[in-house]
Amino acid sequence: MQARLAALEDFREQVVAPLNAGPLWAAGAAPDPALALAHFSRFANPSLEPDAILSEVQTLADAVLQRAAAIAAQEASTVAAAIAASEAASPRAQHCSRGRGRAGVEFAANEAAWSSSPRASGPGGWGADSRRRAEAAAAARLGALRGVMVDAAFRSNAIDPWDPENTYIDRLLARRLGTPRSLALLWLAIARRAGLPLTPHTARGDGVLLKLQLPTGAGAVFADPTDPAAALLLQPDDADDGDDIIMPNNDIIMTDEEVEEYLNNHNNTSTTNNHNHSFSTASPDSFPASPSPHELLPDSASVGGGGCGGYGGTAPADRRFPGLRWRGQPVKLLGPAEAAELEPVSLKRLLGYAFMDVKRTYVLTGIMEEALGVIRYMRALDPFSAGDLRDEGLVLAALGRPHEAYAPLATYLEVVAGASPDAEAVRRALHQVEAAIRRAPPPLG
Questions:
Q1: Alpha helices, DSSP H, located in 119-224
Q2: Global pTM exceeds 0.85
């Protein structure tokens, strides 16, 4: 018990305090997602050393950087061959490549290709070279990250999606099995070390996609941590300023109208009534609610609903566009309706989702002491969560500790003031707690 209390205090000091002190996704901002999961995992394994976890994550990040360097070298070799073949016909490219080595050859190739495109003479033409190089570097690192995770066989646990070990990072690293939320956190930790700026996005709290904003302004791509081998989702930039949209399909440039036509002509499934689709096809999305204090009621909006469901490699609305590639990687177009459903999710909320997966498992299997411990972590993460306050009271009541259960339940009812749909059920649970208090003497001490 003392070890668990010490672990919870370390979580507050090393994760929650830095999380509340700075920008969530600024470069180098604390805390590290891997550190957050490591401290949470000490709840189940108090002897776990966070530094050992961080070392394993760094090893994966080093593998990503090595693989990205290999991808860049291969691309440079291809570019050099292309330059050699076109030097006679392109004096400008020949001049630019002299004395610059690999960087000069790549610059000349990019410049030559760009000069033949319609955007070269428009806004952002020659001045966009640095952004194109940044995008090429990001593409190499994202492709490397996906390759490393495929080779390491990290995947969503479709057989037992509610196993708590899917979220405890020491077990996740050992078994290579996780939930969409825990896998997303692991990817973010690796990407952070590899210099890859990914941000998590979700739709109604269900599943997680990781977004890379393209430096060239061409839009964004999304990767699914549950299926690293799946095609990326490409969201073209909505060019309201009249600029064309860059569709990186073998250097093809598409206008707004052409993108819309492409969507209409290549959509294999109707978008009618697609707004209510489920983002999960392999795992349960939610559990039935119960008004009994022995089971949790639905989670409040402060942490979010949804279960362990992930995208499972299936793009929203299942749009498939054969032949589209971004920097050599297959992509599917993400339609405007599906893109509108995605919203960024903070690290705090994503951690809350991950902890919620574990809490639900313990509650539904009747392991209430463990559920209470997880709720304490959730309340440390978000002290103002009314849902976690309610759940703490319900679990304490289920453990036969009515004197401790009274305050959380009574406070919850004061906070929601009858506005929550579960208020009446919680009020009945509070009456049962009050009756139990009248029958039982107060606890000693």
A1: 129-151, 169-175, 180-193
A2: no
